[in-house]
Amino acid sequence: MPPMPEAAAPAAPPEDSPRTVLQVVGLRRTYGSVQAVDDVSFRLAEGGSLGIVGESGSGKTTTARIVVGLERADAGRVLVHGQDRTRAQRGRAARLARAREVQMVFQDPFLSLDPRTTVGAVLRETLRLHFPDGDHPRRIAELLEQVGLGSREAGALPRQLSGGQRQRVAIARALAVEPSVLVLDEAVAALDVSVQAQILNLLSDIREQTGIGYLFITHDLGVVRCVTDQVIVMRHGAIVEAGATAEVLARPQHPYTRLLLDSVPRPGWDPRGIAAARRAL
Amino acid sequence: MTTPSKTAPKTAPKTLDIQAFRLHLPGAVRPVLTGVDLFVDAGETVALVGESGSGKSLTSRSVLGLLPPGAGTEGTVRVNGEDVLTMTPEQLRGLRTGTASMIFQDPRAAINPLRRIGDFLTESLRLNTRTDRAAATARATEMLDAVGLTAKVLRQYPGQLSGGMLQRVMIAAALMGDPALILADEPTTALDVTTQAEVVALLADLRERFGTGLLFVTHDLGLAAAISDRVYVMYAGRIAETGPAEALFGRPLHPYTAALLDSTPRLDAPQGRLAAIEGRPPSLRDEVPGCPFAARCPLATFLCSQQAPALLPVVGEPTRRTACHHSDQLREMSTDATHA
């Protein structure tokens, strides 16, 4: 595979950097005439957190879905610990092993939880599938505690929980298989500010405790600043800028990144200037 | 239009004037809205901020008389001096066609996908004011032009437009009856950030051009601070605090406002853990005798759990009001911080 000229910069970490857990090389995906993902490459360090920022249609969600395996790439590779996971897997054991590498948390926890299954049963089902011989009651209690839920919630159905609690359940289910990478697709976007802060803090605690890597898909630059250490900015399917989060947010190089930053409302905000800059770009 | 008080002092009604508004729902232990006092002057942009369940959407919908089934109300909700709560269905129709209109969060859910944009825009005028088709279409073309769209859109279907364009159509529709008041309920939440800027710029232009009062309902504190003259912060069906945007966000005088600001991931705040507000708002099944925020409040005392604080003017700042027994402490903290 030929090297990618534009995306090569973030893919070369300094020598003393931690090992790479997830590497994406030259990902492409077209839908009809639309180039949804156009030559996307990046790497995620072990225990690191990488943000993918972009607006609707930027290809950030398609990229995430390819990494998880919900979508097939036309070209390119997704490697976890150096192992290619883009090829079709044969057999139950291989599929389960692949599921243990990467897990995903979606935006709307209500749609990703079965309305008729209690919280405890959701976790038990996942554990039974992946670890048939484990001590499930102990592990369920452990997972619930890790995401800040009690035994009272274990018996609850999704509709009896608040949005924040449901998102905690979705996180617990993803953590149950002890994945190396957690893909969070707008996982806090639907939550109220005060609840969102609780979940963001929870996510940084979990990363500290477990050394799990995050791929954090979001449109919110404040959130990116809060939970990621590396970031890539996507537009029309391609990466326009990549680097350390603090650096990219403080000194954006690409005009599109600048436009995104200027678009964040704050006192003294100039929506007319942004509208003009957007049309010019 | 912008200086009604000069021509007729005290008698000129405010564009929107809500007083001591209370709303009960069947099955709820406590009222969903209590003691809501809120006004919007002509040409003013006012933000109503709160989290889900705070009652902000319920308040804005009440202005159009869109009450939930079985709701009981007290107090008054006046638009241009006329009480919406006592209007007949016919008067309400007149209000919604002319004086006040609403822009909803999701334009795709608010526009019939099977009808052309032209039909959608002119329907209300033609049915309710007996304007003929040609005149209504001319008006629609004019309003589309005001929001930066061409008459070509009239022949198109909602599915052929992007989210940002469709929200412009919604705004054009809201302008059709030349309203004195526009209620915008999270009008940019479903849009991308750069599109949001465009829609907000448009609303600001229209306000200058037509002198329309705007009540902007949002959960986004940054957006509220950026666009509004004055802000109301709601919590659990009550107004927690109100005042000019800059003062309110610069020196909040209600612990809930302060906590909300601290828990928002911002670009200009110090990095690190967010100061999350633990717990959640009281449920409608719980009786709340005292301050609804007491259970989550760092300043709460016994008094707070017993007696709900009234929304009182702030000493020395006549434009600000806060509902907190301990706002003095917050004032001292903020003055200490500015002197330090």
What does the largest sheet of chain A look like? 6 strands, mixed
Computed CA radius of gyration of chain B, to the nearest angstrom: 21 Å
The chain-level mean pLDDT of chain B equals 88
Strand order of the largest sheet of chain B: 6-7-8-3-9-10-12-11
- Give me the number of helical elements of chain B: 13
Number of discrete helical segments of chain A? 12
Shape of chain A: globular
Which spans of chain A have pLDDT < 50 for at least 5 consecutive residues?
Answer: 1-15
List SSEs of chain B in N-to-C order.
HEEEHEEHEHHHHEHEHEEHHHEEH
- Average pLDDT taken over every residue of chain A: 89
Share of β-strand residues of chain B: 15-25%
Helix share bin of chain A: 40-55%
| Strand segment count of chain B | 12
Termini of chain A, distance in Å? 32 Å
How would you describe this structure to a colleague?
The complex is a heterodimer of chains A (281) and B (340). Chain A is of the alpha/beta class. Chain A is 40% helix and 23% strand. A 6-stranded mixed β-sheet of chain A has the order 6-7-8-3-9-10, sandwiched between helices. In chain A, strands 2-1-4-5 form a 4-stranded antiparallel β-sheet, covered by helices on one side. In chain A, a hairpin with a 2-residue loop joins strand 4 and strand 5. In chain A, helix 4 packs parallel to helix 7, helix 5 crosses helix 7 and helix 7 runs parallel beside helix 8. Chain A is globular. The relative contact order of chain A is 0.16. Chain B is an alpha/beta fold and 340 residues long. Chain B has 13 helices and 12 strands. An 8-stranded mixed β-sheet of chain B has the order 6-7-8-3-9-10-12-11, with helices on both faces. A 4-stranded antiparallel β-sheet of chain B has the order 2-1-4-5, covered by helices on one side. In chain B, strand 9 and strand 10 form a beta hairpin. In chain B, helix 6 crosses helix 7 and helix 7 runs parallel beside helix 8. The longest helix of chain B has 18 residues. The radius of gyration of chain B is 21 Å and the shape is globular. At the A-B interface, helix 8, helix 9, helix 11 and helix 12 of A face helix 8, helix 9, helix 10 and helix 11 of B.
